[in-house]
Amino acid sequence: MRVFGFTLVSLVLGFTIVNAQKLARSANPRALRSSRAARTIGGTLRVRQTTTDTCANLDGQDLVVNAVDYGGLDGVVLCLSGVDAFIDTNAVAQDAAADQGVPDTRAALNDLINASGEVCTYPAGSTPAATADDPCAFTCDNGFTPSPAGDPTMCVCEAPAADCNGVCTTDACPSPGPAPRRRGYTNSLRKRAMCPAGTTACAVYERRGVRSNPVDCVDTDNDLESCGGCINPLDSFSPKGRDCSAIPGAMSFQCKFGVCIVNSCDSGYVRAADNSSCISARRFLQQN
Protein backbone atom coordinates (compact mmCIF):
# COMPACT_ATOMS: atom_id res chain seq x y z
CA MET A 1 0.00 0.00 0.00
CA ARG A 2 1.46 3.38 -1.00
CA VAL A 3 0.26 6.84 0.08
CA PHE A 4 0.96 9.91 -2.06
CA GLY A 5 1.01 13.55 -0.96
CA PHE A 6 3.21 13.14 2.10
CA THR A 7 6.92 13.51 2.76
CA LEU A 8 9.28 10.63 2.02
CA VAL A 9 9.95 10.10 5.74
CA SER A 10 6.24 9.86 6.51
CA LEU A 11 5.79 7.46 3.60
CA VAL A 12 8.50 5.05 4.80
CA LEU A 13 7.37 5.20 8.43
CA GLY A 14 3.69 4.79 7.56
CA PHE A 15 4.45 1.87 5.22
CA THR A 16 6.39 0.06 7.95
CA ILE A 17 3.72 0.58 10.65
CA VAL A 18 0.76 -0.35 8.45
CA ASN A 19 2.36 -3.55 7.18
CA ALA A 20 3.44 -4.58 10.69
CA GLN A 21 -0.11 -4.06 11.94
CA LYS A 22 -1.60 -6.02 9.06
CA LEU A 23 0.79 -8.90 9.64
CA ALA A 24 -0.15 -9.08 13.34
CA ARG A 25 -3.86 -8.91 12.61
CA SER A 26 -3.70 -11.60 9.90
CA ALA A 27 -2.05 -13.95 12.42
CA ASN A 28 -4.88 -13.32 14.87
CA PRO A 29 -8.22 -12.84 13.05
CA ARG A 30 -10.13 -12.40 16.33
CA ALA A 31 -7.87 -9.49 17.28
CA LEU A 32 -8.42 -8.05 13.81
CA ARG A 33 -12.15 -8.14 14.23
CA SER A 34 -12.10 -6.49 17.66
CA SER A 35 -9.73 -3.77 16.52
CA ARG A 36 -11.81 -3.03 13.44
CA ALA A 37 -14.94 -2.51 15.55
CA ALA A 38 -13.61 0.81 16.82
CA ARG A 39 -11.10 1.67 14.09
CA THR A 40 -10.90 5.21 12.83
CA ILE A 41 -9.63 6.52 9.52
CA GLY A 42 -7.77 9.75 10.17
CA GLY A 43 -9.92 10.38 13.23
CA THR A 44 -13.23 9.63 11.47
CA LEU A 45 -15.11 6.59 12.77
CA ARG A 46 -15.90 4.02 10.11
CA VAL A 47 -19.57 3.24 10.69
CA ARG A 48 -20.78 -0.30 10.06
CA GLN A 49 -23.78 -0.90 7.83
CA THR A 50 -25.10 -3.49 10.26
CA THR A 51 -26.01 -3.26 13.94
CA THR A 52 -26.06 -5.97 16.59
CA ASP A 53 -28.03 -6.60 19.76
CA THR A 54 -28.65 -9.48 22.16
CA CYS A 55 -32.28 -10.59 22.49
CA ALA A 56 -34.13 -13.31 24.40
CA ASN A 57 -37.58 -14.76 24.94
CA LEU A 58 -38.10 -14.28 28.71
CA ASP A 59 -41.63 -15.69 28.82
CA GLY A 60 -42.08 -17.82 31.95
CA GLN A 61 -39.03 -16.47 33.75
CA ASP A 62 -39.22 -14.48 36.99
CA LEU A 63 -37.52 -11.15 37.58
CA VAL A 64 -35.37 -11.63 40.68
CA VAL A 65 -33.43 -8.64 41.98
CA ASN A 66 -31.17 -9.01 45.02
CA ALA A 67 -32.86 -12.33 45.93
CA VAL A 68 -36.36 -10.77 45.81
CA ASP A 69 -38.77 -12.31 43.29
CA TYR A 70 -41.01 -9.68 41.68
CA GLY A 71 -43.01 -12.03 39.48
CA GLY A 72 -43.08 -13.54 36.04
CA LEU A 73 -42.18 -11.82 32.78
CA ASP A 74 -45.13 -13.27 30.88
CA GLY A 75 -44.95 -12.90 27.11
CA VAL A 76 -41.83 -10.74 27.26
CA VAL A 77 -39.30 -10.76 24.41
CA LEU A 78 -36.55 -8.29 25.26
CA CYS A 79 -33.25 -7.02 23.87
CA LEU A 80 -30.39 -5.37 25.75
CA SER A 81 -31.00 -2.12 23.89
CA GLY A 82 -34.58 -1.99 25.18
CA VAL A 83 -34.00 -2.69 28.88
CA ASP A 84 -34.27 0.92 30.07
CA ALA A 85 -37.50 1.52 28.15
CA PHE A 86 -38.85 -1.77 29.53
CA ILE A 87 -38.15 -0.65 33.10
CA ASP A 88 -40.10 2.55 32.42
CA THR A 89 -43.19 0.78 31.07
CA ASN A 90 -43.47 -2.73 32.55
CA ALA A 91 -45.27 -3.06 35.90
CA VAL A 92 -43.08 -5.91 37.21
CA ALA A 93 -39.88 -4.04 36.32
CA GLN A 94 -41.25 -0.80 37.77
CA ASP A 95 -41.93 -2.50 41.12
CA ALA A 96 -38.41 -3.91 41.20
CA ALA A 97 -36.87 -0.56 40.31
CA ALA A 98 -38.89 1.22 42.99
CA ASP A 99 -37.59 -1.19 45.67
CA GLN A 100 -34.09 -2.04 44.47
CA GLY A 101 -33.21 0.88 42.22
CA VAL A 102 -32.87 1.10 38.44
CA PRO A 103 -29.19 -0.01 38.25
CA ASP A 104 -29.82 -3.31 40.07
CA THR A 105 -33.00 -3.96 38.10
CA ARG A 106 -31.20 -3.25 34.85
CA ALA A 107 -28.40 -5.62 35.82
CA ALA A 108 -30.87 -8.40 36.65
CA LEU A 109 -32.62 -8.03 33.29
CA ASN A 110 -29.30 -7.94 31.44
CA ASP A 111 -28.30 -11.19 33.17
CA LEU A 112 -31.54 -12.87 32.11
CA ILE A 113 -31.07 -11.79 28.49
CA ASN A 114 -27.43 -12.82 28.32
CA ALA A 115 -28.14 -16.19 29.92
CA SER A 116 -30.72 -17.35 27.37
CA GLY A 117 -30.49 -14.92 24.47
CA GLU A 118 -28.64 -14.83 21.19
CA VAL A 119 -26.67 -12.16 19.35
CA CYS A 120 -28.78 -10.66 16.57
CA THR A 121 -27.43 -8.92 13.50
CA TYR A 122 -29.62 -6.38 11.74
CA PRO A 123 -28.69 -5.34 8.19
CA ALA A 124 -28.79 -1.79 6.94
CA GLY A 125 -32.33 -0.64 6.19
CA SER A 126 -34.01 -3.00 8.66
CA THR A 127 -36.11 -2.63 11.81
CA PRO A 128 -35.92 -5.18 14.68
CA ALA A 129 -39.19 -7.10 15.06
CA ALA A 130 -38.52 -9.69 17.77
CA THR A 131 -41.07 -12.47 18.33
CA ALA A 132 -41.28 -15.34 20.83
CA ASP A 133 -40.24 -17.82 18.11
CA ASP A 134 -37.50 -15.62 16.67
CA PRO A 135 -36.02 -12.96 18.96
CA CYS A 136 -33.73 -11.86 16.11
CA ALA A 137 -36.47 -11.28 13.56
CA PHE A 138 -36.45 -8.04 11.58
CA THR A 139 -38.41 -6.32 8.84
CA CYS A 140 -37.01 -4.36 5.92
CA ASP A 141 -37.85 -0.72 5.28
CA ASN A 142 -38.70 1.21 2.12
CA GLY A 143 -39.98 -1.72 0.06
CA PHE A 144 -36.95 -4.01 0.54
CA THR A 145 -37.40 -7.75 1.23
CA PRO A 146 -35.64 -9.95 3.83
CA SER A 147 -33.31 -12.46 2.14
CA PRO A 148 -32.65 -15.36 1.92
CA ALA A 149 -36.11 -16.65 2.78
CA GLY A 150 -36.27 -18.67 5.99
CA ASP A 151 -33.08 -17.30 7.51
CA PRO A 152 -32.69 -13.72 6.26
CA THR A 153 -29.43 -11.87 6.78
CA MET A 154 -29.94 -8.89 4.48
CA CYS A 155 -32.52 -6.63 2.86
CA VAL A 156 -32.69 -6.81 -0.94
CA CYS A 157 -34.67 -5.10 -3.66
CA GLU A 158 -36.25 -7.85 -5.75
CA ALA A 159 -36.88 -7.54 -9.49
CA PRO A 160 -38.69 -6.03 -11.26
CA ALA A 161 -38.29 -3.28 -8.64
CA ALA A 162 -35.04 -1.34 -8.38
CA ASP A 163 -33.20 0.61 -5.69
CA CYS A 164 -33.90 4.30 -6.25
CA ASN A 165 -32.00 6.43 -3.75
CA GLY A 166 -32.61 3.97 -0.92
CA VAL A 167 -36.20 3.10 -1.86
CA CYS A 168 -37.14 -0.18 -3.58
CA THR A 169 -39.70 0.79 -6.18
CA THR A 170 -41.02 -0.01 -9.65
CA ASP A 171 -41.52 3.70 -10.36
CA ALA A 172 -39.18 5.59 -12.65
CA CYS A 173 -36.15 6.84 -10.76
CA PRO A 174 -35.31 10.52 -11.24
CA SER A 175 -31.87 11.42 -12.50
CA PRO A 176 -29.33 11.68 -9.67
CA GLY A 177 -28.15 15.00 -11.07
CA PRO A 178 -25.80 16.40 -13.68
CA ALA A 179 -22.86 14.36 -14.88
CA PRO A 180 -19.59 14.94 -13.01
CA ARG A 181 -17.43 17.74 -14.31
CA ARG A 182 -14.63 16.83 -16.66
CA ARG A 183 -12.10 18.16 -14.18
CA GLY A 184 -13.22 15.69 -11.49
CA TYR A 185 -13.13 12.79 -13.94
CA THR A 186 -9.62 13.73 -15.06
CA ASN A 187 -8.52 13.99 -11.43
CA SER A 188 -9.77 10.44 -10.76
CA LEU A 189 -7.85 9.12 -13.77
CA ARG A 190 -4.71 10.84 -12.50
CA LYS A 191 -5.09 9.23 -9.07
CA ARG A 192 -5.62 5.78 -10.59
CA ALA A 193 -2.44 6.20 -12.60
CA MET A 194 -0.50 6.60 -9.32
CA CYS A 195 -1.08 2.95 -8.36
CA PRO A 196 0.90 0.04 -9.81
CA ALA A 197 -0.66 -2.78 -11.81
CA GLY A 198 -2.56 -5.27 -9.68
CA THR A 199 -3.77 -2.66 -7.19
CA THR A 200 -6.82 -0.41 -7.00
CA ALA A 201 -6.78 3.29 -6.11
CA CYS A 202 -8.99 3.84 -3.05
CA ALA A 203 -9.89 7.08 -1.30
CA VAL A 204 -8.38 8.19 2.01
CA TYR A 205 -10.33 10.16 4.62
CA GLU A 206 -8.76 13.07 6.44
CA ARG A 207 -9.70 14.15 9.95
CA ARG A 208 -12.82 16.00 8.87
CA GLY A 209 -14.03 13.12 6.76
CA VAL A 210 -13.28 14.81 3.43
CA ARG A 211 -11.57 12.95 0.62
CA SER A 212 -8.26 14.53 -0.33
CA ASN A 213 -5.56 13.97 -2.93
CA PRO A 214 -3.79 11.02 -1.23
CA VAL A 215 -4.86 7.54 -2.32
CA ASP A 216 -4.44 4.02 -0.97
CA CYS A 217 -3.16 1.48 -3.50
CA VAL A 218 -4.92 -1.71 -2.40
CA ASP A 219 -4.67 -5.29 -3.64
CA THR A 220 -8.45 -5.79 -3.64
CA ASP A 221 -8.07 -9.41 -4.73
CA ASN A 222 -6.53 -10.30 -1.37
CA ASP A 223 -6.99 -7.40 1.09
CA LEU A 224 -9.09 -8.42 4.13
CA GLU A 225 -10.48 -4.94 4.68
CA SER A 226 -11.19 -4.00 1.05
CA CYS A 227 -12.05 -7.31 -0.60
CA GLY A 228 -13.28 -7.07 -4.17
CA GLY A 229 -13.17 -3.27 -4.18
CA CYS A 230 -12.59 -0.22 -2.04
CA ILE A 231 -14.29 0.24 1.33
CA ASN A 232 -13.76 3.95 0.60
CA PRO A 233 -14.29 4.19 -3.18
CA LEU A 234 -12.36 6.80 -5.10
CA ASP A 235 -15.49 7.91 -6.99
CA SER A 236 -18.89 6.67 -8.11
CA PHE A 237 -17.27 4.49 -10.79
CA SER A 238 -15.10 2.56 -8.31
CA PRO A 239 -16.29 -0.90 -7.21
CA LYS A 240 -17.47 -1.13 -3.61
CA GLY A 241 -15.60 -3.75 -1.57
CA ARG A 242 -16.46 -5.88 1.45
CA ASP A 243 -14.73 -5.85 4.83
CA CYS A 244 -14.16 -9.56 5.58
CA SER A 245 -13.23 -8.74 9.19
CA ALA A 246 -16.73 -7.34 9.79
CA ILE A 247 -18.59 -10.60 8.98
CA PRO A 248 -20.69 -11.33 12.11
CA GLY A 249 -19.58 -14.48 13.93
CA ALA A 250 -16.53 -15.11 11.71
CA MET A 251 -13.41 -16.30 13.57
CA SER A 252 -11.08 -17.02 10.64
CA PHE A 253 -11.50 -15.57 7.16
CA GLN A 254 -9.66 -14.65 3.98
CA CYS A 255 -10.07 -12.63 0.82
CA LYS A 256 -9.46 -14.74 -2.26
CA PHE A 257 -9.83 -13.39 -5.79
CA GLY A 258 -11.90 -10.51 -4.43
CA VAL A 259 -14.37 -12.68 -2.49
CA CYS A 260 -14.59 -13.04 1.31
CA ILE A 261 -14.33 -16.67 2.44
CA VAL A 262 -15.08 -17.73 6.02
CA ASN A 263 -12.79 -20.54 7.23
CA SER A 264 -14.36 -20.95 10.67
CA CYS A 265 -16.97 -19.34 12.89
CA ASP A 266 -17.20 -18.43 16.56
CA SER A 267 -18.93 -20.75 19.02
CA GLY A 268 -22.68 -20.62 18.41
CA TYR A 269 -22.34 -20.08 14.65
CA VAL A 270 -22.03 -22.36 11.62
CA ARG A 271 -20.71 -21.54 8.18
CA ALA A 272 -23.16 -20.78 5.39
CA ALA A 273 -23.23 -23.26 2.50
CA ASP A 274 -21.29 -20.86 0.26
CA ASN A 275 -18.73 -20.06 3.03
CA SER A 276 -19.51 -16.35 2.70
CA SER A 277 -20.97 -15.80 6.19
CA CYS A 278 -21.73 -17.33 9.60
CA ILE A 279 -25.26 -18.31 10.64
CA SER A 280 -26.56 -18.58 14.19
CA ALA A 281 -26.41 -22.29 15.10
CA ARG A 282 -29.65 -22.02 16.99
CA ARG A 283 -31.51 -20.70 13.97
CA PHE A 284 -29.76 -23.22 11.71
CA LEU A 285 -30.96 -26.14 13.86
CA GLN A 286 -34.50 -24.75 13.96
CA GLN A 287 -34.60 -24.80 10.17
CA ASN A 288 -33.08 -28.24 9.82
The average pLDDT score comes to 74
Q: What strand order characterises the main sheet?
A: 6-3-7
Domains (count): 2
Spatial extent as radius of gyration: 23 Å
Tally of contiguous helical segments:
7
Taking the sheet with the most strands, its summary is: 3 strands, antiparallel
User: What fraction of residues sit in β-strands?
Assistant: 25-35%
Encode the helix/strand succession as letters.
Answer: HHEEEEEEHHHEEEEEEEHEEEEEEH
Instruction: Give helix % range.
Output: 25-40%
Secondary-structure content class: alpha+beta
Distance between the termini: 45 Å
Shape: elongated
Overall strand count: 19
Low-confidence stretches: 1-48, 206-211
Keywords: Signal
Domain Protein CPL1-like: 216-279
Protein name: Protein CPL1-like domain-containing protein
Signal peptide: 1-20
Walk me through what this model shows:
With about 290 residues, the protein is an alpha+beta fold. The protein folds into two domains: about 140 residues, no CATH class; about 130 residues, no CATH class. About 30% of the residues lie in helices and about 30% in strands. It contains seven helices and 19 strands. The strands form nine sheets. The chain has a three-stranded antiparallel β-sheet with strand order 6-3-7, with helices on one face. Strand 18 and strand 19 form a beta hairpin. Helix 3 packs across helix 4 and helix 4 packs across helix 5. The chain is elongated. The two termini are about 45 Å apart.
